[in-house]
Amino acid sequence: TKKSDTTDTEAGGREPAQVKVALVPGGSHPYFQPWKDAGAAAKSELSLGDVTFNETAGWDQTKQNDVLKSLAAQGYNAFGVFGVSPDNINSTFEDLKRQGFAVGSLASCPAGANKADFCLSTDVEVAAYKGAKAAIDAMGGQGNLVHLTGNKVDSNTQRRIKGVEKAVAETGGKVVLVQSVTDIDKDLQSAQKAVADLLAAKGRQIQAIVNTAYNPAVASAEGVRQSKLPIKVIAIDDDPAVLDGLRGGSVAATVLQNPVGQARVGSYALMKLSGGCTISEPGVTIDSGSFVVTRDNLDGYEADRTATTEALRKKFDGDLLKCN
Amino acid sequence: MRSLVRTNEFTLAVIAALGFAALAVATDFNLLTAGTLDAFLRFLALPIVIGLAQMVVLAVGQMNLSVGVLTGFCAVASGWLMIDAGLPAPVAVLAALALGATVGLVNGLLVIFTRINGFIVTLATMTILEGLRYGVNGTGTYQGYSPGLREFGQASLAGVPVVFLLAVAIAVAVALFFRRTVPGRHLLASGGNPFAARLSGISNDRALVLAHTLSGLLAGFAAVIVVAAFGSVNASIGDDLLLPSFAAPIIGGVALAGGMISVTGTVLAAFLVRLVDVSQSQFDINRRWVDLIIGAVVLGAVLLGQFRDKLSGGQR
Amino acid sequence: MSIVLSAENLVKTFPGVRALDEATLTLTAGSVHALLGENGAGKSTLIKILTGVYRPDGGLLRLPGPDGELRTVQLGNPQDAQRAGIGVVHQERNLIPTFTVAENICLQHLPRRAGLLDRAALRVEARRCLDLLDLDLDPDLPVSRLSVAQMQLVEIAKALSADSTVLLLDEPTASLTNDEADRLYGIVRRLSERGHATVLVSHKLEEVFAVADTVTVLRDGRSVAEAEPLADHTREQIVDLMVGRAYQQVHLAERTVDADTEPALALDHVATTAGHHDVSLVVRPGEIVGLYGLVGAGRSELAKALLGLDRITAGEVRVHGRPARIRDVGDALHRHRIGYVTENRKEEGLFLDQTVARNTAVTVWRKLARLGLVRDRAERSLVDEYADRLGIRLASPDQHAGQLSGGNQQKVSLAKWLAADCDVLIIDEPTVGIDVRTKAAFHELIAGLAARGMAILLISSDLPEMVTLADRIAVMREFAIVGELDNDHDYDRMSQSVIRFIHDGQGVVA
Amino acid sequence: MKTETAPAAPPAAEARPPTRVLPVWANPRLGLLIVVAALVVLFSSLTPAFLDPRLTLAPLQADISVYVVVGLAQLAVLSLGHMNMAVGRMAALSTFAMGLVYDRLGVPLLVGLLVGLAVGAGIGALAGLLIAKTGVNSFVVTLALDFGLLGLVTILYTWATGGVSFAVQPSGLSALRFDTFADYCMGDVCGPRIPLVVPIAVAAALGVGLLFRHARLGREILMTGSNTVAAELSGIPTHRRIVAAHAVSGLLAALAGFLLAANNGAFSANIGESFLLPSFLAPVLGGTLLAGGAVSVLGTALGATLTQVIYKGLNLLQFSLEELKLYIGLVLLAALSLDRLRAVIAERRAVSTS
Ligand SMILES: Nc1ncnc2c1ncn2[C@@H]1O[C@H](COP(=O)(O)OP(=O)(O)OP(=O)(O)O)[C@@H](O)[C@H]1O
Ligand SMILES: Nc1ncnc2c1ncn2[C@@H]1O[C@H](COP(=O)(O)OP(=O)(O)OP(=O)(O)O)[C@@H](O)[C@H]1O
Ligand SMILES: [Mg+2]
Ligand SMILES: [Mg+2]
């Protein structure tokens, strides 16, 4: 006979000092680096038991599951996770919730219904749309556009492609999306090679490149600069390499996301959930914001981001969390 | 003449020439325009050198799983030297080469002192190097280093990228080493029949260490090509080099068991793989289909080789 | 006469085996010294110690210094031995298959100029060594393209290339024709006249008596005769020393074959993709048919074509009267009960890194298996039985075949086909590298098999063996049968007829 | 009829001293076991969480189970001296088949598993057939197959699911994923805290062990690996044995894919992505040579255990990424060197005392 499932428990009743938050990205990536500091800040600000940042998963869902189990074994009880595989991560979330942990999906939402308590992430479709818009602006409203992105068989990539296509469609045929090049974010060298081949094959017909992944962004900025072609490059995120490109002119604009906000507000919400609050709409998805930055607003964007982060927290306090 | 026609290299050369011609026609000769040809050859340099780096250890019947990651490590380390330590480019280049050779030497010494299978040793050092490669600059990217070095990477001689010429020069040097130098012959003898080599007074241990050191040195050269030609480096460099490093020599006809190498075959095989790569961007083919095609091409090439062997075997 | 090498009380132990147990060898300048002993007596081990391949566990090795005084030395590796002027041909082939003949010959001291390999000098040096053997071989040919005999000759050229004062030859003639062997011994004699010393290991006692002047006999790793003049001994005495027991006659089983019996194996105007044409041959149950020819005549190839490894393009093969299409060895073994003992035990006969038990039982696992699982007990008793019958020297049935001495390996290679219990057995060069006692035992065994009704096709380049064993001798030349003779067991007469067939290339099929 | 002048036939081979058996501690498998035990002691003294039965030990066993089977899949062809560079993708294709039949036909867990195993065996057999028929190096054939399957698998997933994963959860899968025998009780007596997937892996290991130790098929595969020409000349149908070994490899890859899918809770395209290196690591650590002719199933199990223990322990110690990689490599090298040292000492002793 099977024993009844006594292990299933609900999160709740933990004092902030008992809450140990684990922020787990899918692997090492510049995008997640702000989580480290933001997590540490959240820890002291909210007097949490602990906040750790663990990027050892190496873009492998099995390894990430393993990392999560190890963290649980060490007493971490609240998890902010970027699921390596949006299509599989729900089972991992369920697994964690069964053990009575608060779980937030950070920076990426699972494909289909979200089984974590909430998902705080860039709306990638909106971000890609904004990037494409910026590209269309930069190329003067007409011409040929190319989209460079990551793993094709990933629901987020599909959403990004959709966002770019939407922006292109709005031009009513003045801008043509020549190509969406996928699967070139795994390592820098493949991105460089793909960009070089692309520029060689079609460089003269292209007016702009919009990137929705990091390695292609770095590679296309450098590649376009070297080829001296008049192509506008829209990058992503604010890694030093991208900001340098923005200042140097090889990057026309970049679409920023809000990793700091994800980590800080995410930790906050996880603490609240661990303390006995519930989420009013389980699995709710919240856009953590995206911002187009050009050389002109290089200095002001940080303030916008802080404001958005503050608004996010208010939103959680106001209508997302139910506490008694 | 007949014997030339029967070689694996000849088959590969024919396939490569036909493939290249077909692609040139199919792209309305866009392939032959300066820019396209330049990109084609520039990105051919790395697979050639990395294939040779694997080939020299295959020659003694070993494998080096760390070539790719070692290339990345040397590249990131030279980025660090130029940007964070502020050293001039020549120093960084020499350091990358020295670093590669040193790691290769350590691989070789570990293999002979522990007598652990080279496969496992290099798997372990690969993991260690992954850590080190990441440790240099985390997820950050180095770019904007030495303009001179990058110009060198972009330069062309009579329309041919200098880095490609460098790769060819390296290939010639490797061929010369195996063909014309005594240590090179000893290395091959040791790979062909270790026991017989030992009975002829050749030290198998020395051959192993030499092969691994050379492999590391070639990985160092690969790193220099990366740094010079591509303009930016980070800790992801080298992740996609492991399989190509095996594919080029093995398709090129190098025996896994050791003792037999083919520099020409390795170069031609790298050329073939690059050809598939380029057709993908020329025709906007889904990468997944490209994988299928590469699989088919590789199988086709070896089957053809087999067919040719059968034909020539039948003439005996 | 001055001593050029002295090995005293050498001891060498392998896990489970004491290969050398206080063996002593003294070599004087200008001598041709025979080193004799049964299979597994420790001859090769001794040679390997003298060339720095193995280090002895005990005993002394002394070589003359520059002043001629003997001095204790340690040979740590083969280079040390080379430097000490010791050249060697090991029993096993030790060539680099992908290298050219010239490179293999000069591998120990590749000539260089300006740091690079000097190919011209290499060719000259190789040519010189090949000329010593009157060998007309292209020095630029890769060794992998040579025949076994040619490889053997290249090995000898390699040993000569070092200009050694001591030459150790471990079974150098095992795969040579008589002509080639004679040429080799001519060189050996010339060298000894110039003061070089040679150690010769061979199981062909005729050769030994013809060439050597002194002899050391090993038995179970111990020297039972030390550097005695060979002239003081008769062949029989030497054999007694080797065997350690009084000389006895061996009786080959009596057989009578009825010429009307349905042949077990019949070839009717067979041609093959290997190049055979018009090959007709019958072997009846209880009969031993010899297939004689020079190396490369196509005898082994014929056997392999019969087993389906080459295609038969014309003619007919009949097994017990029924036309047979044999696809592979499994087919031959299980459907037609034909077995083939290969001449090349290392590459084709044995699984060197597997246990003797598995090597022996591999052909009969089908019979030993119940529900697909092999019964270890049955396998064990099978191995014990054949080790016993063939006198295989084993430390244990779980010993790897590669650790056995050459003769014992040959026995294992035969054992698996005896175990398979075939009607027809093709035996290819069964006694190459086999000691006299075992050779006689093999002969007795083969005759015994025939007496019990087995049909045997015996391929051999050893004419005395042929004359001893065969009922009829077919002679093959250039992939065709050029003649067939009834054997009257008179060596001189038979050899004359056979040689005539070979040289004239024509004869009447008897 | 005729008499030959030669000495008497030999009597039975004289009794020789039996082979000295190496001491128990010199057994290579035992060495690995000791290294594993030492690491377990080390890790549990460094972090007590290592002994947490629910959060560490149970998942650890489940992981080991997967990688033992992955190692066995490679071992099946290493026995021939071949390699299977497509283990991972064979697993992916097979789990696709499983997901498809669960999703479309709603078959029970076991039926889907069998379908997947059949697909795995089939694709393995195809690889074997190509290798045997063409004589092309197994590395090249399976590498090419790997590329081909990489494309095929994603194309298939896109076609069947529009994504990279089946949403279906056949009944029983979650039990395999979460339950241990401790969850099943007879009255008051509950089983040990061993995940349900463990017996599957144990059965696979026993099966492969039986195959290579006692079955004619397995032995003939080993002989083919040891010396193909000699095997051919001993009447072994080497082509069929090559096909069989590759089919077994594909079958085990499929099983590993199933176990991983059970552990992860989803049938998805990325199953098997990380199989390649571990598949070699486990058998080679366990003493199986790349040259063929000899395998060690127990060693493979211990090799997989060793790597997973190292990984788990270091994970628990919360190293940063660069430290983690560094230490995995170093611990691996150290463990192996110790094992080597032990073997060398054992050999010396055996020789000097016999
Ligand atoms: N590497 C080894 N490992 C274990 N045992 C060995 C090894 N080499 C030789 N032996 C054993 O040592 C003994 C002597 O072998 P050796 O090869 O010296 O005999 P031999 O006199 O040359 O015989 P043959 O005439 O058959 O060549 C044999 O019992 C053999 O099994
Ligand atoms: N005329 C030839 N030219 C080239 N190669 C030959 C020629 N004749 C024979 N060979 C090769 O030499 C080898 C020896 O042939 P085979 O084994 O059939 O001869 P054999 O009569 O059995 O001689 P043995 O067994 O004594 O060597 C084979 O590989 C065969 O292909
Ligand atoms: Mg011998
Ligand atoms: Mg022959």
Automatic annotation (TrEMBL), chain B:
It is found in: Cell membrane. CDD domains: TM_PBP1_transp_AraH_like. It comes from the Bacteria. Its main location: membrane. It is a multi-pass membrane protein. InterPro entries: ABC_transp_permease (IPR001851). The chain crosses the membrane at residues 40-58, 65-83, 89-112, 119-136, 156-178, 207-230, 250-276, 288-307. Keywords: Cell membrane, Membrane, Transmembrane, Transmembrane helix. Pfam families: BPD_transp_2. This is ABC transporter permease. It comes from Micromonospora zamorensis. The lineage of its organism: Bacteria, Bacillati, Actinomycetota, Actinomycetes, Micromonosporales.
From TrEMBL, chain C:
PANTHER family: CARBOHYDRATE TRANSPORT ATP-BINDING PROTEIN MG119-RELATED, GALACTOFURANOSE TRANSPORTER ATP-BINDING PROTEIN YTFR. Residues 5-245, 254-503 form the ABC transporter domain. The keyword ATP-binding applies. Pfam families: ABC_tran (PF00005). GO terms for molecular function: ATP binding. InterPro entries: AAA+_ATPase, ABC_carbohydrate_import_ATPase, ABC_transporter-like_ATP-bd, ABC_transporter-like_CS, P-loop_NTPase. This is Sugar ABC transporter ATP-binding protein. Gene3D superfamilies: P-loop containing nucleotide triphosphate hydrolases. It comes from the Bacteria. Keywords: ATP-binding, Nucleotide-binding, Repeat, Transport. The keyword Plastid does not apply. CDD domains: ABC_Carb_Monos_I, ABC_Carb_Monos_II.
Automatic annotation (TrEMBL), chain D:
It is found in: Cell membrane. Keywords: Cell inner membrane, Cell membrane, Membrane, Transmembrane, Transmembrane helix, Transport. The chain crosses the membrane at residues 30-52, 64-85, 105-132, 139-160, 194-212, 242-260, 280-306. Coiled coil: none annotated. Signal peptide: none annotated. It comes from the Bacteria. CDD domains: TM_PBP1_transp_AraH_like. It is a multi-pass membrane protein. Its main location: membrane. Pfam families: BPD_transp_2 (PF02653). PANTHER family: ABC TRANSPORTER PERMEASE PROTEIN YPHD-RELATED, ABC TRANSPORTER PERMEASE PROTEIN YPHD-RELATED-RELATED. This is ABC transporter permease.
